[in-house]
Each structure stands twice: as structure tokens, then as C-alpha cells.
Amino acid sequence: MDLHFGDSAPTDEERAAVDSLLGPATSAWEGAEDRSDADLRWARGGREARERRDLLLPGLHAVNDRVGWISEGALAYLCRRLTVPPAEAYGVATFYAMFALKPRPAKVLHVCTDLACAAKGSGQVCADLEERVGPAGAAAEGFAWQSSPCLGLCERAPAALVLQAGTPYDTVPAQRDPRLRDVGASARATGQDRPDEVPDGGGEVTPVRADLAANGAVVRPLRPAVDAAPAEPAPRRQAFAVVAPATADALVDAATAPEDAPDEPSAALAVPQAGQEGLILLRRVGVVDPYSIDDYRSHGGYTALRTAFDIGPAGVIREVTDAGLLGRGGAAFPTGRKWQATASQPDRPHYLVCNADESEPGTFKDRVIMEGDPFALIEAMTIAGYATGAHVGYLYLRGEYPRALHRLENALTQARLRGFLGDDVLGQGYAFDIEIRRGAGAYICGEETALFNSIEGFRGEPRSKPPFPVEKGLFGKPTAANNVETLINVLPILTMGAEAYAAIGTENSTGPKLFCVSGNVERPGIYELPFGATLGDLLDLAGTPTGIRAILLGGAAGGFVRPDERDIPLTFEGTRAAGTTLGSGVILVMDDTVGLPRTLLRIAEFFRDESCGQCVPCRVGTVRQEEALHRIKDRTGAEASDDIALLREVGQTMRDASICGLGQTAWNAVESAIDRLGAYK
Length: 681
Fold this sequence. Notes:
Blueprint (H helix, E strand, L loop, with lengths): L11 H11 L14 H5 L4 H5 L5 H12 L4 H11 L3 H8 L13 E6 L2 H5 L2 H12 L5 E2 L2 E6 L11 E5 L18 H7 L17 H8 L24 E5 L4 H9 L36 H6 L4 H21 L11 H9 L6 E7 L8 H8 L1 H15 L1 E8 L4 H16 L15 E6 L9 H9 L22 E5 H5 L1 H7 L1 H5 L9 E8 L5 E6 L4 H8 L5 E6 L5 E3 L10 H6 L8 E6 L4 H15 L5 H17 L5 H20 L3 H5 L2 H9 L5
Parallel strand pairs: 1-3, 6-7, 6-9, 7-8, 10-14
Antiparallel strand pairs: 1-4, 2-3, 4-5, 10-11, 12-13, 12-14
Pfam families: 2Fe-2S_thioredx, Complex1_51K, NADH_4Fe-4S, SLBB
Family: Belongs to the complex I 51 kDa subunit family.
Protein name: NAD(P)H-dependent oxidoreductase subunit E
């Protein structure tokens, strides 16, 4: 790929995919097929087009989702539309694991081989797939399969995700859900426009269907109506299927026809405590219909937003500060301080970013919230935007979360229709709206400045600090960035009051905390406990078998503890004092059947793959770490001592000199396994 445009041209399908996002090209300068006399007189595009650089990532998604891969012609057309040098766009496209720049089948099966799935047998699943359809990457039976890092489905491990490229459904909301399927088809077949007018026998009318129709949403099927008789073959439609727990036979069936795969279970099944008294953050999951804004409001929804308008932006920040809310993404930075610093910046506009790109192996709490209680996140983002003076919020969502995407799209649609988003939120004179931006498979984009670069249409590489995001963040403007769990904690702070919220937990770690428990436990899932509960308390809830070998806290960037360390307090200060980390709340239990050296090697492979390569300590260090672990995977004692010494030197260098948290934490789990668990002795 060059800095200059070549002779490759997009296909009609690729052109349609880009035009569906950007609109038709208006001149030959933008890639229109016909050159007019006006095009010969002056050039168009320039600064106006370059200001749309942030649409590069959505444009790449549009082509990849429609065709299944991104050709040179498609990339060149997108570059002409946005006035982006092809070499730069190529660098962006190749940065993300979910994009392909070489031909591949429209259906791709992603099989998770990360820590939780490996502990539950993903290796055997991959071996069975190889025997049945061939090696990873090879096209067979109409699809290609490949191993994948964590898919955020750890409670149902081993897990896999099928993505089928094709024509998108013109659907609001767009989701594979039995309650919405075939409604629009039935209505159109009878000449009616609204789902709630379907006559008897024309399809079941559920409250959520009627609610959507009454609020102006267009409800159409995600599968063609079975009784329709198209004049020509129906185009291939976009589809997805989640298979978890996965077997080779189930994966082949789903990859062959993802639109016919069984529906996913309710998000509530990932919450063993669902429906129990005393829950705060999870109290609506499994109780409220995630498609209905009215059901959400009947269970206390949007009470916090009204309180925010009553007390004003400064009052909201004061409540969040007094509550002692710390960031739940792992850094534990005080949220009130971040919001105050953003709000006080004179430079305008301000932006709000929700980091929903939870890619830490073993983490799936944000997915469960977005699938089970999506309106809570929309409300929380609106409050955060109001407090920090932002009028636009970006929700950066993992590309591997299609169901969460569809439910959030529905929630945004209903919120706009009801006046909870838009130019005049609840008639308070405050304008705020949210745009979803999808990631495409890059763990590093969980780092906030790498996320900003990704949204802006650049490679997702971290920026040097200072300046900090509250000063110069997204588009060089003051930006408050928080993850999903942090934001939804704002709702109970405003409804119960800062003092009551701060009374939960400990003095330095206030409020409730969500924990992602997976691996060799009887009841994996998301658990809500107040800060201060011990590791043993949580393990008792999840049900742990005998023969536990190790417990990983905080995910791949965290650390191992021994099974006899059940008294560790699950607080930021408690885990720090114990020489480990709470991180994002991962609790991954491994029994004696899980090989520790192989697990450490998988962690090293993960960091090697996910390093952005920007800084030398991380780019080289993660490779050297993996090489050393390969050499000693079957060694112990004196045979491994030289490589362990090398690992310590490399690990300390990464920790001291890497530009961001990926390199700084890449050695943590390996170090803890050597020192705490006696690995390789």
C-alpha cells in the first residue's frame, strides 16, 4: 500500500457499503465514477473531508461487515472519500484483529482460547475442529475458523462467536431476539404499518413490540419471513451466533447457518444472584425488560437524572466526590476529581467517553450490564455529560459484543424518542446525545488515550502523558473517560445520597463492586459484593471444588494468589497490601487439571499479540518473555534458573520503561506465579 492511490476500484457492493455511511460521492475527487466539467475546474474535499477522519473506523467496519474483508479497491475508495492517505488507512486497518485485508469467507468462526476457556477445554474443541474442518484459517464448509482472545463469555466457557458478513438489516432496533422476530414481516404481509396492529394469527404481540411501535421505532425481522416469496434470491444478511459452551459439532452447525442458531440465553443467567434482595448495581438485571424504557422507568429508571438536574452540575460532582467513587477499570482514580478537572477546563467543547472495550481476559461484567440493563448506562452517561459540560458522548464498544450493540442501539432510539437524549433533555435546556463506536479487536484500546486515537481514525496507540485527557483528550479537547461499571455507580449515589453510598464498603473503597468469577467453579458469573468482603466469601458464593491450584486476580494483567489466601480483602487497598491487584474484578479459579506453565505461556502470547509495538520495552520485552517461557515450559529447578533470571530483568524493564499499562503489567502474572506459587521449582 502506497501513499498514493492505485488503479484498484471498489466493487458495487463495497461502494454501497461506504456510501451507506458517508452518502454517495458528489464528485470524482471523492471517488464518483463519472467526472463532470465542474470536477475539472476545482477540487473538492480537502479540509471538510479531513475533518471526517474519525469516520475511518466505522467505514472499515461497513466494508468488512458487508463483504467479509477489505480489498485494496474498497480501502482506496474509503480513503478518497475521507482524504486519508492509503498507507495511513492501511496501517489502521491492519491494526485490528477483526479486519481482514485478504479474501476470506463471509462467515468467520472465532473460538476463544484464552484463560477461562482454556481452563474449560477450549484446546480440545480446537483439536476437534481441526480434525473435522481443517487447520485454523483454512476455508472449509463455507466458513473459516480462527482462535481468538477472550470473547467476554467466560461464564459459559468454552465459547465461540460466529460473524456473517452481508447486507445489514434496516432495523431499529436491530437484534436477534425471538420477541421481535417476524413482527414487521407479518405486518407488511397484511398491509399494516405497526406491529401492534398484527391480527390474530399474524404473530404474537408482546408489550415490548407495542412499546417500540408506539414510540416510533421500526420493528422488522432479522430473518426473512418464511412465507415470503421473493422474486429473486434474498441477499446474504449480516448475522451472528454465540455458541457457549461450545462443541465442535455445535460450532460447525452455527457457522454453517448462523441465522438459524439457537438464541443466546438471557443476560440474567450470567448473574447467579439475579432477583435477590439487596443488590444495587445488578438489581434490574433479569427483572427489567432490556428493550422497554417504560419498564426501566417503572423500576426507578431516570430518577437519578432528574435528581442531577435538580442539584446542578456542581452538585452532581460534589455528590460523586463525597461518595468516594473510584474508577472500576483497574486504575482506581477518584471519579469526582476527574469530572471536576474536566468541567473546569475553559477549552470547549468537552467530551464524554464510555470505555466499554473490556478486553481483559476473564472480564465480562460490562457486557452483562449492557445486555441486561442498557438504559442504566445511557442514563449514567447523560448524567456524566451534564456534570462535565459535555454535549456529545462516545460509547466505545467491543466489536465482539454484537448483542450488546443491538440492545444499546435500541436503548438510544427509545431514549431519543422519549426526550431523554437530544437537543433538550427532559425540557431542561441541556443538549446531549451518544454515538456508539465499535472497536475491532485490540486490547490496547482499553487504554484511554489509545481509545481516543481509535475513535479519531488513527492506530490505537497510547499517547504520552501529560497532557492528561482532562486537558487534551478526544480531538484535543477536555475529556472525561470512564468505564461502564464506574458510570452505573453514579445512579445509586444520586438516588440514595453520597453519605449512604459511602457507608457501603470500606473507608478507602466505597460502594458495591462487581466481580467476574470463572474457571473451575460451580456457579460462574457476575457477583455483586460490597468492598471489604474477602476472597473466601466470594469463592463460597461461587462454589469451589477441591484441588484448587491457583486463583488469578485482575486478569492477565493481574496476579496469582494461593488457594489458602482466602482472607485477602477484596478492596483496592487490601489487595495492594497483599502484594496483588484487584484490577477489573476478575477472579479466575484454576484446579489441578490446568497446567500452570501452559497458562503462563498463554498470558505471554496474549501480551505479545496485543502489544501495539509503539515503544521498544513492550514491543521487544513481550516477545522475549514469551520466548523464555517457551524454553522452560517443561523445565524446573536449575534448568530453568537462567531463563527465570532473564524474565525478571525483562519484566522489570517493561514495568519501568513502557509507555502504558500494557507493558507495565505484562510481567505481573508471570512474576506472581514464580514467587507466590513456586512455578518451575
